[in-house]
């Protein structure tokens, strides 16, 4: 039970800690000053959301997200969100592929060669089906967490751990809702795909509470660290580098590698969600389906996605709030989900 629970925990964290989170950009955009309470609320909302999604997945023995969506919001709304999730996963994965190629240009690898590497590793990952995804997360996510926490703790040690949190100055608490909502679609897509593989409800509690506590702790420490360099973040595309500026150059290279891993795990989660959705319609090996999806994505990495993002992401944000509300209300409307 514990082993499987940890496996799902790392799957959740791997879905969450993408390039935006690991770089600090996502946290800085949503949180910043007066956000201690917001981060605590986010951790609570996240635990509840993961528990509800996993409980529904487990009870319906799902292998993709449609049964979970239908349970949460009915068949009519499910049709809308089915399209939205496919678009979200597809567009996010395309952006991750482009980011993977651009990141490796730092070590003077050609852009297309970098994209080829990340695509090749993604296809290889799905040769082992779901086990490949969970095994990869169980290996790389602890490394990512340990390295990120080490950098943040060392930075705070140099600063003397100047944490302050006055409950009278926590005006940014609504950010907890928007930040949780932003990440709810990929969580539904990925966690719905493992319903039939959960053997015991204890796994759900380990995965949900563990991931919420870990992500809440990292988010708080990361946000506090970013506040210490708030005046310099504007000079950096990647806020993490504002923290790393006093570190040796090899640390910058190490963290650049970790950001690439974060990009890879996000792309893997996107492909995993899409493959889980389409495999019932296409009788192909999972790795071949992943290959076909990636072949349609690679040409799109040549286009600028700023317009697409500026239209889709605000729309996702609004629609995701409705999904989040459905998830949070589900235990109240369907009494007993947490006890049975």
TrEMBL record:
<feature type="transmembrane region" description="Helical">
    <location>
        <begin position="311"/>
        <end position="333"/>
    </location>
</feature>
<feature type="transmembrane region" description="Helical">
    <location>
        <begin position="286"/>
        <end position="305"/>
    </location>
</feature>
<keyword id="KW-1133">Transmembrane helix</keyword>
<feature type="transmembrane region" description="Helical">
    <location>
        <begin position="36"/>
        <end position="58"/>
    </location>
</feature>
<dbReference type="InterPro" id="IPR038728">
    <property type="entry name" value="YkvI-like"/>
</dbReference>
<feature type="transmembrane region" description="Helical">
    <location>
        <begin position="7"/>
        <end position="24"/>
    </location>
</feature>
<keyword id="KW-0812">Transmembrane</keyword>
<feature type="transmembrane region" description="Helical">
    <location>
        <begin position="173"/>
        <end position="192"/>
    </location>
</feature>
<feature type="transmembrane region" description="Helical">
    <location>
        <begin position="139"/>
        <end position="158"/>
    </location>
</feature>
<feature type="transmembrane region" description="Helical">
    <location>
        <begin position="204"/>
        <end position="222"/>
    </location>
</feature>
<feature type="transmembrane region" description="Helical">
    <location>
        <begin position="79"/>
        <end position="103"/>
    </location>
</feature>
<protein>
    <recommendedName>
        <fullName>Membrane protein YkvI</fullName>
    </recommendedName>
</protein>
<keyword id="KW-0472">Membrane</keyword>
<feature type="transmembrane region" description="Helical">
    <location>
        <begin position="109"/>
        <end position="127"/>
    </location>
</feature>
<feature type="transmembrane region" description="Helical">
    <location>
        <begin position="249"/>
        <end position="274"/>
    </location>
</feature>
